[in-house]
Amino acid sequence: MYQSPTRTFARIGATPPSTPPASVVLGRAVVLGGSLAGLLAARVLAEHAESVLILDRDDLGALAGPRSGVPQGSQVHVLLPAGREQFERWFPGFSAQALADGACLITADARRSYLDGRRKVRGSDVDMLSASRPFLEALVRRRTLELPNVKLLRARVTGLDVDGTAVSAVRYESATGPGVEAADFVVDAMGRSSRLGDWLEQGGWERPPMRRMIINLNYATAEFRRSEKNPEATAALAISSPTASGDVAGVAFSAIEDDRWMVMLGGYGDSRPGHDVDDLVRRCREDFPAEFARVVDNEVLGPVQTYRQADSRRRDFHRLKRVPAGLVVVGDAVASFNPIYGQGMSSAALHASCLSAYLRSDPDPRRPARTFFALQRVVVDAAWGMSTSADLARPSVSGPRPRGYRLSRWVADQIVAASVTDPTIARRFDDVVQMRRHPNSLATPGTLARAVRVNRADRR
Ligand SMILES: Cc1cc2nc3c(=O)[nH]c(=O)nc-3n(C[C@H](O)[C@H](O)[C@H](O)COP(=O)(O)OP(=O)(O)OC[C@H]3O[C@@H](n4cnc5c(N)ncnc54)[C@H](O)[C@@H]3O)c2cc1C
């Protein structure tokens, strides 16, 4: 039975906490990549497989800080409300544990949001969680590896074996040499550079079509000591509208564990914030609202870390005519977006919830996981639509533009503008930006009419 993307999205996000499934349907599940998406998928699989093995090329056991397999780990990361809800669903008590270990709660009162220098009204009341990316991953890893049937092995995955129509094994290189791990079910969670497409093609299967949008985004992040016990704002984001002069993407700060602030400066194209901490401090003092100056007046801790991301990209597994049974893909390996919108970790958590819905639907493991890819597509479309529609408005982004772009751009412009001053629109807009509702939920006549009215009144 057809269900609209808005309803499907709500169903994926709202499914109640798990009661144990009726039966274990899989034998050995192997997860390729032990970062956030892989760990969340392993958590779900632990309910459906006799055993789950996670393979990662990094030495995860020893790590508590940034690592080479996740080069973005030293940049600002905020877990949006949708992600927080899903983390809580898969690891009950997650937020309380994170807060006890030092993470910070970003309540509605303690966050600031600016568009072109104008402070936005308070929107969503839902709290966010702020911590460094390695901190969040370490906690998710700890909770996942507590499950008795989940194990982790340090190994670089080198290929996939398909026996007839279904995956049968994973090949890898480990400290003891090459190895082969038999698998009934395989999850690719190897991030945006995953080579799964190459392996499928080499094995005579189709490579998933890839869509890219060039964004040329440059991040620079520095850490500062947080000395205030109860800072007025624990996180702030100031962004420029796409058509504003200059190609500044935005600036953000957030309070993280161990009494630190993380401060990020982002630019597009030739606007490349560099390693010079004095420059970062000067820009925060001179170009942005007063909260930013207050944060960078603290002692700087360590060098500025830069990161560059050329594109948003998605691999459309749902469009494949032929795909081996027993194979799914999650996290950035499917879609990774302009990071300024902070959707990645929440997307990975929603993909895990799609996997749960698929496995609970009593699927035939000898057939391709098409219903999984169809569900996941709704999540990817939502995040992709949100991030690319904003990026397309930037003069430096050339497309491709989807059909009906001019109209959807006009609608988006009305809603974004009204969200600055109108609390009702701000709340609805936040629900979408924070991935708690599908973007189509904004495209109702009532919301649009209200936005147009608000904008007219504001102009007067
Ligand atoms: C600058 C920046 C800022 C961001 N800010 C936010 C934010 O505020 N909020 C948010 O939600 N998201 C943010 N993101 C996105 C977020 O970082 C990612 O979406 C998230 O980390 C995706 O996790 P993943 O597990 O899919 O992939 P990754 O974290 O990329 O992990 C891939 C894993 O696969 C392993 N691997 C790769 N190849 C192999 C192999 N051959 N064999 C074995 N292991 C392999 C790697 O070691 C790694 O552990 C940001 C991203 C960037 C770039």
Task: Give a verbal description of the structure.
The structure is a single chain. The chain has 13 helices and 19 strands. It folds into three domains: 242 residues, FAD/NAD(P)-binding domain, CATH 3.50.50.60; 126 residues, D-Amino Acid Oxidase, Chain A, domain 2, CATH 3.30.9; 59 residues, no CATH class. The chain is 34% helix and 27% strand. Helix 2 runs parallel beside helix 9. By secondary structure, the chain is α/β, with parallel strands linked by helices. The protein starts with a helix and ends with a helix. Strand 15 and strand 16 form a beta hairpin. Strands 6-5-14-15-16-13-17-19 form an eight-stranded mixed beta sheet, sandwiched between helices. The mean pLDDT is 91. The site of flavin-adenine dinucleotide has 38 residues, from helix 2, strand 2, strand 9, strand 17 and helix 9.
